[in-house]
Amino acid sequence: MCIESGVLGINAIRRNFGTSDLLFKIAAAHSASIFSCGQLVSSERDCYEMPSKHIFGYYGSWATYRSGKGRCAAEDIDPYSCTHLIYAFAKPTSSGDVQLVDYNLSFAGFNGLRNRNPSLKTLIGIGGATVGGYIFSSIAGNASLRSTFAKNARQFCQTYGFNGVDIDWEFPEGGDRYNFVQMLSELSSELGGYDLLLTASVGPSEYRASQSYDIPGIARCVDYILLMAYDYNGSWDSYTGHNAPLYSGSSDSEFQKQLNIDHSVRYWKRQGAPSHKLILGLATFGRTFTLSNSSNNGFRNNASGAGHAGPYTNESGILAYYEIQERFGETRWDSEQCVPYAVSGNQWVGFDNTRSIQRKCEYIKSQGLGGAMVWSIDMDERRGGSFTLLNTIKQCL
């Protein structure tokens, strides 16, 4: 187990010893605010039913700068839609500091969502795909910097009002595999003493995990492991493939048969990750391709590059769910991989809809996983103030 220093906080206890006794004590201490039916009293919602699984929702703060339907401010998020919200991102520095990415944005609206739902937990995501792996590598490989970084992460949470930290290092390489656990251990000790949560967002595939992660070591240090179970295929390939297939397809090669959710989850469990700590990432975006021949428009057909950028996200090779709904008409269903895809001329997209999200939520329950993570709330479709895919997850879990 990770060694805890100072006061052994509630979250540190949960990491190492489980939750059943702790939850009983908390429930007893707060029995006055809990109905016998197991529902919480809320000033905003008189009787809010707690989900049986955790739902982590990532919020991309840059969405506040998008125009029209693409714009999403923190205040637009339903505070009852998730059990945990993660703000993307703050960034680490080579000196072990934690810095704001955008000094024009405020955390007040995001963390203020807890005023409407006191049961909600908010975390700061540190890292992300645009942060150079060398920065995390330099911190993780130096004992002094690990200590400095852990203290600065804890102070960041206390300064801005977060309930914990999610580490998104994409991705550890070589010797980083061991050092990553050392860094998480330091964070676990520092954050746990202040009842702050620690999670890690990780690459899910066997290929990635076998190179980057000491899975039992990570599991000992964090409250939850967030499997980023998407980006299995994309425009970096020369052929079409789904963003997040639940299972493999018959046209997959032996290597490609590893690139799906079921293979990833079973691998992480075999390698020692407790099921209840695994949180399955679900995508509110699709990966797009430009077909080489629009007549050959199934899976593993030739593609000449990324699909066209969307009007709101403005990035080739990717579309938000609401952009897919605008751009594509008829949806096709692949019964082998249990996911939808769509074609419009020479444009091809593999994405998730309510049907595939329901299938994945049932999979979460069948595998005994801890819950779901959404990347990202701001890319979901909004109808009448409700987020379509996120609401599906909430109803299913």
UniProtKB/TrEMBL annotation:
GO-annotated cellular components? extracellular region
Q: Name one GO biological process term.
A: chitin catabolic process
What region holds the GH18 domain?
53-397
- Report the superkingdom from the record: Eukaryota
Q: Which InterPro entries match?
A: Chitinase_II/V-like_cat, Chitinase_insertion_sf, GH, Glyco_hydro18_cat, Glyco_hydro_18_chit_AS, Glycosyl_Hydrlase_18
Which UniProt keyword terms apply here? Disulfide bond, Glycosidase, Hydrolase, Signal
Q: Which GO terms describe its molecular function?
A: chitin binding; chitinase activity
Pfam families noted in UniProt: Glyco_hydro_18
Q: Which family does it belong to?
A: Belongs to the glycosyl hydrolase 18 family.
Matches recorded under PANTHER family = CHITINASE, CHITINASE 4-RELATED
The name this protein goes by in its record: AGAP006191-PA-like protein
Biological source species: Anopheles sinensis
